Amino acid sequence: MLQSETVATLGYADLERLMAMQLGDEKHSRSATSTLDVIWVLYDRVLRIDPLATKDPDRDRFLLSKGHGPMAYYAVLAAKGFIDVDTLRTFGRYDSPLGHHPDRNRVPGVEISSGSLGHGLGIAVGLALGLRARRSPARVFCLVGDAELEEGSNHEAIAYAGRFGLERLTCVVVDNRSSSLGWPGGIASRFAIEGWSTATVDGRDHEALERAFAADHARRPHAVVAVVEQGS
Amino acid sequence: MTLVTQSVMRERFYETAAELVDRHDRVAVVIAEIGGSALMAAKRRHPDRVINVGIREQLMVGVAGGLALAGFRPIAHSYAPFAVERPFEMLKLDLGHQDVGAILVSVGASYDSAASGRTHQSPEDVALVGSLPGWRIFVPGHPDEADVLLRAAVLDNDRVYLRLAEQSNAVARPIEPGRFHVERRGRDATVIVVGPLLDPVLEATADLDLTVLYATTVRPFDREALRSSGSTRDVILVEPYLAGTSSSEVDEALVNEPHRLLAIGVPNVEHRRYGNWREHDAAHQLDAAGIRARVLSFLSA
Fold this sequence. Notes:
The complex is a heterodimer of chains A (232) and B (301). Chain A is α/β, with parallel strands linked by helices and 232 residues long.
């Protein structure tokens, strides 16, 4: 992440405290935990974005399609200076910008409003197409869950993006093995058969995640399956 | 009165959409196969901005949302059931909840494709889109009007549903987006007629002393035009889709005035017949004879 010197930032060690400030999301807490390391690595090491330039047309985009459990997302956004840390205490309140599903119109740095599963990847494909048409260097990263992939709309997007070689699109699947029927042959195979580059890594290993995101995938979209402990 | 029978609005749309992509760098067209042949030349000229996602209507709307987030003015297009009903949640979330705009253009209005059966009919479309906040809904009654409305929509950034029909009035009116056109003034009642049903209404009521307001924009509903029509005690709403789709708009406009309302449109039943749209219009009393019978019955009650 491109970091402005005027924005104080916190580290990975602070995230547990920042998540604890949002207590009360009993329903979504497991989901929040599963995405924590992936979102941290993206914001800390991968994304070219600046909290003071959230409308820069050439910024990288991170789309949290799996809008459930946004505590990790909000914690990272607070740690990186996109939102005020004290705002975390308002999580889920009537007048808070921080809902149990994020709203791009309420939270600086949030690129899409999400919550209903199966929407982010389609939007990400359109965004990647639009940025390509504009000759922008920006990249698009979309996070989905392994259970979210059960929504058929994802497979419309996976097929199209693969066939049309959207190389600036990366889909990261956080796999906590929560899908109802599992994915025989592995999640990565569902992307590979449509022409995606794929990598499957430990979703808690920051170096492995960073390497997976940096992998060369010229003329192909890239899928990173980040495996975390079951039910996390 | 002679009706134009060809799918002129649809062909005109393809021509205009191609021209708009040529003229405006920010315009992009997203289709799900339907229209692919007609837009092939435009796609060759602008492969990055004329996008055919295949038979994937959910993706079509999602891509439109993503293009809007990237600063484009997307035009998404398909057959009405596949543009509105199948990806309805995408209209709500990928466009509305993101608070981005797009122009959704449908063909196959109500039962234009009557012979195809229920799968290809969607007289519910305007009611559905109208249930979502922030959408303007255009229902032109002539290819020239469709052209005016599309060109106006491209210059804005909001969410627009443009509903094209096979049925067309013989002569275009000088319409203005957002406003009803006063076709004629009378004293006994006010008729609000939407889009391609203008000619049948004029034929049905030629000898009656009625105000006729012609609506090609139905959302927002031009309440002021109705209030100032001068004869609002009896109001007749004639819509080429689900009957009563705009009844609440009439009631809101006249909330402080005693009035009666007759809502003529497509009944909310599954009409298991094929044929063509004229036969369906006749079955639903949406041809001139049927409209006249219902209007006379209402006014004499």
